[in-house]
Amino acid sequence: MTEIWDRETFLQRLRDVGKDRYHHLHPFHIAMNAGRLSQNQIRGWIANRFYYQQNIPIKDAAILSNCPRPEVRRIWIHRILDHDGQAQGEGGIEAWLRLAEAAGLSRDDVWSHRYLLPGVRFAVDAYVNFCRTQPWPIAIAASLTELFAPDLMRERLAAFEKHYTWIVPDGLQYFRARLMQARRDSNEGLELTLTYCNTRELQEKAVEALAFKCDLLWAMLDAIQLAYGGATQPSKEETK
Ligand SMILES: O=C(O)c1cc(C(=O)O)c2c(n1)C(=O)C(=O)c1cc(C(=O)O)[nH]c1-2
Question: Which atom of ligand 1 is nearest to the CA of 83?
Answer without folding.
Answer: 16
